[in-house]
Amino acid sequence: MIQPDSNFIVLNAPNAPKKIANDKKLKKKLAKLTQQFSKLQRKFYAQDQHSLLLIFQAMDAAGKDSTIRTITQGVNPAGFQVFSFKQPSKQELDHDFLWRSATRLPERGRIGIFNRSYYEETLVVRVHPEFLDGQRLPALQKETDLDALWAERFESIVEHERHLSRNGTVIMKFWLNVSKKEQKNRFLERLNNPKKYWKFSGNDLKERKLWDKYMHAYEEMLNATSTEFAPWYAIPADNKLAMRCEIAQLIVDKLKSLDLAYPQAENVDQFEQYKAQLLAEK
Q1: What are 231-279's pLDDT values in tens digits?
Q2: Can you name the residues that pair with 232 across neighbouring β-strands?
Q3: How far is the C-alpha of 57 from the C-alpha of 98, rounded, in Å?
């Protein structure tokens, strides 16, 4: 069981009942929230004062892709961007571990969504420390240096996010907390449906065997990097509809808290003259 500190926000117990509300009510609520998200995003884009960074982390089959697709329905595609971070390229390995994500940060007025992120460097790389060989870190000499390395990366991430926050980036981080039992069910669903074969890999089962190691890595990462300016939200993911509603509600509430407004137009006193000119056209 992951034990949170005061900054790590757990919305419900990991094994919350699947039927929090019936599906019809949840779908209706989600539709309303996505509509609100769309309207708020227009003001957010027009105000051009903040950027919003949404980070999604989870074990396989937790529903990251489908959740991102669902909550952004109706949002103007010109106002947001989604990046998925997988195995780093040679060019990316020749930079520090924050570089590739830093080049994809959203500018003011836009929403950036990271499907996985720089946090992989404290999760999958921690579970598979052999991946560090490709990073050729000069300070890493032996295995006993690893604990210090993870602590340093947590520190770098917190300072990175503090800098972004100071400069107008609103950061929200979501851990989709799927249970091991539910992950098994979703893997079986993929294996039983030819249309979902492409979603499954034999490597998924290899990673599943390392579940306890991943949970340990998540626990330390969540507690070390959840801050007031960049909090982690632990969202129970066994019920996808309920999970999406919670995430959409959090985003809507955050956008509302920014006191968004359309910019004031200049030279309003001349608008009547402009209208008269247009109406006088033949």
Answers
A1: 999 999 999 999 999 999 999 999 999 999 999 888 888 898 999 999 9
A2: 173
A3: 16
Residue 234 makes CB contacts below 8 A (sequence gap 6+) with 2, 4, 8, 9, 10, 11, 14, 175, 177, 222
126: nearest Cα among 112, 108, 146: 146
Alpha carbons 10 and 3: distance in angstroms, whole number: 10
The CA distances from residue 167 to 50, 51, 74, 237, 248, in Å, are 8, 9, 28, 32, 24
Q: Cα(265)–Cα(282) distance, rounded to whole angstroms?
A: 27
Q: What is the pTM of this model?
A: 0.90
In terms of average pLDDT, the best of 16-30, 126-140, 149-163 is 149-163
Between CA 245 and CA 29 the distance in angstroms is 7
- Of residues 273 and 6, more confidently modeled: 273
Amino acid at 175: W
By C-alpha distance, which of 246, 251, 253, 252 is closest to 11? 246
Residues in Cβ contact with 22 at an 8 Å cutoff, skipping those fewer than 6 apart: none
